[in-house]
Specification:
By secondary structure, the chain is α/β, with parallel strands linked by helices. The chain has one domain: Alpha-Beta Barrel (TIM Barrel), CATH 3.20.20. It has helices at residues 4-9, 46-59, 86-95, 113-126, 141-144, 154-173, 212-221, 232-250, 268-281, 285-298, 304-317, 327-338, 352-362, 364-369, and strands at 21-25, 63-65, 101-107, 131-136, 177-180, 185-189, 204-207, 224-226, 255-264, 323-325, 344-348. Strand 1 (21-25), helix 2 and strand 2 form a beta-alpha-beta unit. Helix 6 packs parallel to helix 7 and helix 7 crosses helix 8. Bound molecules: flavin mononucleotide (FMN). Flavin mononucleotide is lined by residues 67-68, 105, 136-140, 208-211, 214, 226-228, 259, 299-301. It holds the Pfam family Bac_luciferase. Residues 41-343 form the Luciferase-like domain. It comes from Rhizobium phaseoli.
Amino acid sequence: MTTKDDFREAGNPMFNDNKLKLGVFGTNCSNACAITLAESTFEPTFEHNVKIARQLEEAGWECMVPIARWRGFGGPSNFNGVNMDTFTWAAALSAVTSKLQFFSTTHIPTLNPIVATKMATTIDHISKGRYGLNLVTGWFTPEMEMFGVPMMEHDTRYEYATEWMEIVERLWKENGVTFEGEFLRVKDAFSEPKPYNKQTNRPVMICAGASGKGMHFTAKFCDFNFGFMQDMEAGTAWVKKVKDLARTEYGRELGTFTSCPVVVRETEKEAKDYYDYYVNQKGDWEACENICEVLQVQSQNHSPEMYQKFKERFIAGWGGFPIVGTPEQVADKLVTLSGTGVDGALLTMVDYNKELPFFNERVMPLLKQAGLRS
Ligand SMILES: Cc1cc2nc3c(=O)[nH]c(=O)nc-3n(C[C@H](O)[C@H](O)[C@H](O)COP(=O)(O)O)c2cc1C
């Protein structure tokens, strides 16, 4: 079995000694994670992504995680309507960087497991082991129905995903794989090269499954569970729950990652005013409504009441816990976040081009002083 130590020994950034690992989320898509019409210089172009990746590397961040998306969510912003493919995105970014970890987020039902294995392994080699898969099963019905087949029922999607992963895992280790499942069949299948890292035999695997089935799938196959935190108390409970599940049911160590929209400004007033501007004044509530409507029906991880309460959070950063304030306040909040036991956070910003340099210059040194990062 692949362990945390195998990845650590191989020098994979996701398993380094930093107590709170950091990444960015969604820069392959228009508006990334902020459902807003607020002005931004950020565009989901390869050039902007290279610029972001280089700044992250220089400041010692761990990873970039893209969003798997095939169509926008409507509203005046058509939120996420421009969305780069996450495999070719990761391959190209890996080729022009040397330290950062990249993920491809893949909708399992849209991709044959042999093709996925081959593409993932190829990027794993291009990046020299700085690569991973973020596994999603799909929840946005119009997006999944673009592929000409009805979307599977929620739990069936994870049963399908389980067969898919069983094939992928075997192809990473053996040749001549034959598999006959309820959903998938492969006959005498080969995939070479094998994964770059001979200790782990596979790239890093993450999944944001939040339902019972989703958490079991993650605990069985993945290295990290991604989840949103309503507050620190709920966050602490979630971290404990998934780690316990992985240990007791599957004898595995599971890490956790969350996601947070961040607004950091010289003064608290400036930060709060900007948060109010991009969320309350300029938020694309129509696109947000479209997302929440589908999620309520198709995903089991939230109650309708909670959706109402957290619509604002969706606009701010796709449901992540907002961190707003001066550099000192933001660093303090990240220390508190780390106190939940979470291993890392994907930070989302409205304008990465303008906000990331300020975060690196002013918040990063404070995180080092606080012992969260070396
Ligand atoms: C941090 C994070 C990232 C996610 N990224 C995507 C994505 O890129 N594409 C997608 O269709 N779903 C994405 N999801 C949705 C999850 O895959 C999952 O469906 C959701 O958390 C509900 O869990 P469940 O499937 O177990 O009900 C993401 C969720 C989280 C928390």
